[in-house]
Amino acid sequence: MKKRNVIALAVMGLFAASTAFAASQFIMGTGGTSGTYYPLGGAISQIITDHSGGKVACVAQATGASVENLNLVERGDIDLALTQNDTADYGKRGEMFFKTPLKNVVAICRIYPEHIQVAVNPDSGITSLEEFKGHKLSVGAPASGNEANARQILGEIGLYNGEKYVEFTPHFLSYAETTSNFKDRLIDGFMFTTGAPNSGIQEIVTAQPLRFLDIKGELRDKIIAKYPFFAPAVIEKGTYSGLGHDVETIAVQACLVARRDMTDEEAYAITKAIFENLEALGNAHAKGKSLTLEHALDGMTLDIHPGALKYYKEVGLVK
Questions:
Q1: Residues 268, 10, 103, 225: is their CA dihedral positive or negative?
Q2: Which residue segment(s) compose the domain that 42 sits in?
Q3: What is the model's pTM?
Q4: Residue range 200-226: mean pLDDT, rounded
Q5: What is the number of structural domains in the chain?
Q6: CA-to-CA distance for 203 and 29, rounded, in angstroms?
Q7: Which tens digits make up the pLDDT trace of 133-178?
Q8: How far apart, in whole angstroms, are the C-alpha atoms of residue 46 and residue 283?
Q9: Which of 26, 177, 239, 283 is spaced 20 to 30 A from 264 at the CA atom?
Q10: Are 137 and 189 in contact (CB under 8 A)?
């Protein structure tokens, strides 16, 4: 095992004594506590711990999500992480938030689609993305996958010029900070890249009305043509209290990645534990129901860990 940083060492104290010496002790990077990654990562970590045949004990760690997670895996500070497929692709290429290509990050599986969810205070009068001009919008935590998507989408309507946001006031807030600021009327709207439903949005709609904005038609087609890791998606009516119609949007994919230098035996045990306990995962977290063997490698541009690949060959997903 590689040496861990201070955060990782602190998290190790959470492992039960019964597993401390019987299994490899792994940390999974997730996201903010108000997002989808944190509880989902906890559910996956528990499945791995309970069903890897004593080979791996895993615990979820709250982080700044995709970009931070990839850097932590690259340095060997954590072992597994949840990340967006688009952000992982930037890391592979050494683009956007990454000065050089990441060498120590490989894929385990695709988990679920992450919807771009754009919503505003109905009192703001905003009915489309173009009408954000002159308003205050949360674009996500700094250097997050969420903020990268905001740049890409808003760039197609002239609100990001390749260097900075223009014609509106950007607020660089986490999901929890966005929820609090929106409820206090400090911002007019927000853009989340996250699974639906999102707990922060659920908190908002229990207290006040919310208007969701579509990303559709020509704008959607332009975005997907330029950034093919996006795909058409729908936030279905009833996903949130008061949402009485489908919302057209786009989505990236949430993925599980690992250290390249993780042993094949460990990666195989992790992959097998996840896919042979999908019902338990779905019962533990709603997004677990979106994870299927059939779509395990959808949207993947990273190398697949040889241990995970061994499992996929065994079950006939890969020849």
A1: positive
A2: 6-112+254-314
A3: 0.74
A4: 95
A5: 2
A6: 24
A7: 999 999 998 878 789 899 999 999 999 998 999 999 999 999 999 9
A8: 12
A9: 283
A10: yes
